[in-house]
Design brief:
This protein has ten helices and eleven strands. By secondary structure, the chain is α/β, with parallel strands linked by helices. The chain has one domain: Alpha-Beta Barrel (TIM Barrel), CATH 3.20.20. The strands form three sheets. A seven-stranded parallel β-sheet has the order 3-4-5-8-9-10-11, covered by helices on one side. A two-stranded antiparallel sheet has the order 1-2.
Length: 297
């Protein structure tokens, strides 16, 4: 069985947390969103991932209502984009230093805290998603300067990176990066070297899109026949196999699967009890890795 906890910043947390983005699907059913997050905490979740632009502030507002200091839940947020109500996309890039600072202030306000435990700088250099253009093309050093200043001011406690390249991570190491969030899954392992660097530097690896397939034409772990065969042999779902592989693959992996459904939440938490033996891991490791480095917008 895999280790059940791992380090994140100055904390030891459960290796399966909760990605709160999907709570925005319950925007018109706030009571359900509140109940779902409370259920996550009851199940032992002590690491929640969020952003001000999730649901135009709705998700942070639910977190503020549900989570209290005595719950001892580590809330990780991110900057690099802001809400964009009425736009073609629900968010707009906000990469400039002054925008990063404003985004931190917005997260502080919406979460109702004096200091943010961990803030991920979403760079958008790699993986599926938007790419910066025009004045949104900002040097990493300039961004790290403002993030470090915000940490020195006590507004954030720790800095993470998201959608970053291996070179970018290496450049950022002197800033004491505590986690990296990149798109990574069983079927998209482009960042294997970066994962190993994170392990060596005691940096948490927190993959988003952990089952792949976030956008059309991207590979999905749940489409793989081998994944289905393993799931059937273990009496679990293909999604659970894809998540369990990540936990077994490296000890610094922390999962933040998101859902708006209580049954799915419980199934995700149950992944920590799934054991993959060496033969099964070898079968899964043999699945072809395909790139997910696709720009949109």
């Amino acid at each position: 069985m895999t280790t059940q906890t791992a380090a994140l910043a100055d904390r030891t947390v459960s290796r399966i947390g909760y990605g709160a983005m999907q709570l925005e699907r319950l925007h018109d059913r706030r009571d359900e969103a509140v109940a779902l997050l409370r259920r996550a905490v009851e199940l032992g979740v002590d690491h929640v991932d969020t952003a001000e632009f999730y649901g135009f502030g709705f998700v942070n507002d639910v977190i503020r209502e549900v989570l209290h200091p005595e719950d001892d839940v580590l809330v990780v947020t991110k900057v690099g984009a802001d809400p964009n109500p009425g736009g073609h996309l629900p968010l707009r890039l906000a990469q400039r230093p002054e925008q990063l600072r404003a985004s931190v202030e917005n997260n502080l306000r919406s979460l109702g805290v004096d200091r943010l435990a961990v803030v991920n700088l979403r760079r958008l250099d790699t993986g599926p998603g938007l790419r910066p253009e025009g004045d949104q093309v900002v040097d990493l050093d300039d961004q790290l300067a403002v993030m470090t200043a915000l940490r020195d001011e006590g507004k954030i406690a720790a800095i993470g990176l998201s959608s970053v390249t291996l070179d970018g991570l290496r450049r950022a190491l002197p800033a004491d990066v505590v986690c990296v969030q990149n798109a990574y899954s069983l079927v998209s392992r482009d960042d294997e070297d970066m994962l190993q660097l994170c392990a060596a530097e005691d940096i948490a690896w927190v993959p988003f899109f952990p089952l792949g397939g976030a956008f059309p034409n991207l590979p999905k772990a749940t489409d793989e026949p081998t994944v289905h065969a393993v799931a059937e042999s273990l009496g679990v779902t293909p999604s659970q196999v894809g998540l369990a592989w990540l936990l077994h693959h490296a000890p610094n992996v922390l999962l933040i699967p998101g859902t708006a459904n209580t049954a799915h939440l419980e199934a995700n938490i149950a992944v920590s009890g799934i054991t993959l033996d060496a033969e099964t891991l070898a079968r899964l490791d043999g699945i072809e890795s395909r790139s997910n480095d696709v720009a949109i917008g």
